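Hi P.,

Sorry for the delay on this. The queue was packed all week, but I finally got your sequence through. Input first:
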Amino acid sequence: MAEVLRGDDGLPVTKVGAWTVEKHERLLKYVEITRPVRAKFARTETTYIELFCGPGRSIIEDTEIDGSPILAARTAKKSGVPYTDIHLANADPSYVDAACKRMPDGVGRVHPYVGEAENTVDEIVSRLNPRGLHFAFLDPYKLDLPFSILKKLAAFKRMDMLIHVSIHDFQRNLRLYMKERDGPLDRFAPGWRDEVNQRGADRNVRIAIFNHWLALIRNLNMAASEGIEKVVGTKSQPLYWLVLVARHGRAHDFWNKIRNVSPQREFKF
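Then the structure:
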């Protein structure tokens, strides 16, 4: 059994790479820049949603850092317009418990859920106000994001999603996933087998599958931002893309203003 890492407070932590800081910086800038819109809905409902929340704290080498749910909640509170509700889910109950215990005071009502994202999303959407303002940060470890999740979240008129798509997993396991029926690729981009030439070069297959995924998003009356940010590792190896998905043009304008937190990288597969 793998050793469970513990933070200074005795609760679980995860080990992450230095690039996580860059991801968090974009997330927090988006939370900050959307403050004026959040203020307009403060009396209705403003939510922050994570289906893969982690324990709320991580270690980079020997340094502890707060995780995305803690940072987002604290940033919104500091802006003067905290979220009214924070929905945190993970398949590991110890992670959900740790994230909730680490949540600062005064950041809004915190709702915990334990289970696979495909199931917890149903619990969460059943609680959302259709007239509210909602923001989901979808940060799975691998290419494990069923499109059904996006479809359920997109049913809400004012729903923005910041999505982590693993380039590393996409590249490393492409052919393995192609062989799996109802595997990660089929759940990520349903119907891709009918649209993609599977005999092409790996790069062309990845491009075609990703473009099919973008088309599925457009079919939800939403759009992925043109500014898809590629995050790389310490040796410049591609790790993942950050994709903002939203229905309203103002969200895309916000993203374009804050997404370049490091030297701009051309979007490549």
